[in-house]
Every structure is written in C-alpha cells, then in structure tokens.
Amino acid sequence: MLVTIVTPSLNGMDYVRGCIESTRMQETAIVSVEHIFVDGGSSDGTPEFASAHGCSVLTRDDPSIYAALNKGSYGASGTLLGILGCDDVLLPGALEVVVQHYLRTGARWIIGGCRWLDARDRDRGDFRAPPSWLRASMLASLDWSCIPHISTFLHRDLFVELGGFDPTLYYAGDQEFFARALQRERFSRIGRVLAGWHRHGGNLSMSSDPERLREIRMVMEQYGPLSAWQRRAYRYLLKTWLNGTNPRWFVCKRVDAVRARRARAATAVPGS
C-alpha cells in the first residue's frame, strides 16, 4: 500500500535530514512511501535537499501551512495520507503498523501516539492517542488540539469528502479540521507511539500571537457547546484524562514551562 507523507517546509534544514530519513526507513514488503514537500520559498536549500533525496517538491505562495497541506494532499497518490513537519520524525515501523491496522479494520481515520522531543532530541514523554470517546464538542473546548497531527492518518477519500483544511486559518487549522472529521465519523485508535515532535520554542502551537487565540475561540464557538459551564466540564475532563494517562509527558511539560518562564525573566530588561 502506498502512503503519502506531506511536509510543509520553509527553511527547515536544521531538521530536514532526520525527517526524510525517518520516512525512507518506513518502506517494507507491504508499505511504499511517497514523500511530498510543499515549500514556501526556502532560502537555505531545503527544497533542493528534499528533491535530491527522492522527495517530490511543490511550491506555494500562500503563507498558510494548511494551504500547503491541501496542495500536497490533493496531489497525493497514496491511499492513506499523513503529515510530517520538517522538524518531525516517524518512528521505526510506524507506517507498517498503520497499514496493518487499516487492512485489519478498514478504518478511514487512524490515530496513534506522539513522542515529545526537545531541540537536542531528548525524550520529553510520550503522548498517547486521545480517548475513543472524544467528540467534536470536547475537542473544541480545549485551547489546543489533543489530536497529534503527525500521528494521524486519513484515507484520501475522507480527506476529499471533508474538503481539506481551511486555508484561511494560520494556527488552528488542524483543530478545526479534526472537529469536522469527528462530526463525520469516529477514528480508530492505535496504542503505540508513531512519531516524534520536536518542541523547540519556534512551534506555531506555542505562539503567543493574539491571532492564534482568536482562531481557537472561533473553533470553540463553531464546534463547542453553547454553555460556558459545559465547555469547562469538557476541558477539565479531557485534561484530567490526558495528564493522568501520560504522567511523564505531563511532568516534563510542567518542568519545561517553569524553565521557560525563568529564562524569560532572566533576559527581561529591568523596567520594561
């Protein structure tokens, strides 16, 4: 079975070698891989490097990552579609597990776990696939997406039926897309970590841009419960489940947050 991995790129040479090597390692007797880069005008040689290592390279003018993901996904040949950033990696054997699960269950939407890594490749804890009882209204009640996009695989037909990502969004496009997918059908859960995500401080999901908060509120208003108390209840329920089932991830996340605050305080200009 052919699996297509779509990578939006923009000056990703610091990590791109590991990203490409991790996808090339996925080839087995039952898995073939198509790796498509959609580049936004890199000046560091990222598209040239990707092309030289067997990847297809498309270009994009739209700054939205979600527009890039649409372009790569609609141009894909694979039965299943996956997403991988330049700074992400697939773990050994991940795609064989996904394909075997698909062949066994026929599920058009499959989610596995994600390993958080720091900028030096150190393990910061595994994050399991979200609970099978997750609903669109619950996902929209969080201020982030608990569905790890790099460990999520969709049948191409389902992607087309959903109309792809909303290209007008810059930060919350994955949460909005997954909310729509949850409204259509349930996902199938894999109890294994499939990919690694580098948390290096430059991630869009860590941005303090007010536009990110606006998009999150938009998703909450469109897909979440109408009542504020129900949103709080869903948020508390999900956070309790996520933190309780991923204890090492939770502790590392807290420790990293404290370190980040201390680093900001140490570099702050007095009186500013």
In short:
The protein is of the alpha/beta class. It contains ten helices and nine strands.
Key phrases:
globular, Spore Coat Polysaccharide Biosynthesis Protein SpsA, Chain A, nine-stranded mixed beta sheet, alpha/beta, 272 residues
Quantity of strands, as a count: 9
Query: Which segments are poorly predicted (pLDDT under 50) over 5 or more consecutive residues?
Result: none
Average of the residue pLDDT scores? 92
Largest sheet: 9 strands, mixed
The fold-level CATH name is Spore Coat Polysaccharide Biosynthesis Protein SpsA, Chain A
The CATH class label is Alpha Beta
Tally of distinct domains: 1
- Overall shape: it is globular
**Distance N terminus to C terminus?**
57 Å
Judging by the overall fold, what is the CATH architecture?
Answer: Alpha-Beta Complex
**With helices defined by DSSP (H or I, 4 residues minimum), what is the helix count?**
10
- Fourth-level CATH superfamily: Spore Coat Polysaccharide Biosynthesis Protein SpsA, Chain A
Structure notes:
The chain is an alpha/beta fold. The chain has one domain (2-266): Spore Coat Polysaccharide Biosynthesis Protein SpsA, Chain A, CATH 3.90.550.10. The protein contains ten helices and nine strands. Strands 1, 2, 3, 4, 5, 6, 7, 8 and 9 form a nine-stranded mixed sheet that branches. α1 links the parallel β1 (2-9) and β2 (32-39). The protein starts with a strand and ends in a 5-residue tail after the last helix. The mean pLDDT is 92.
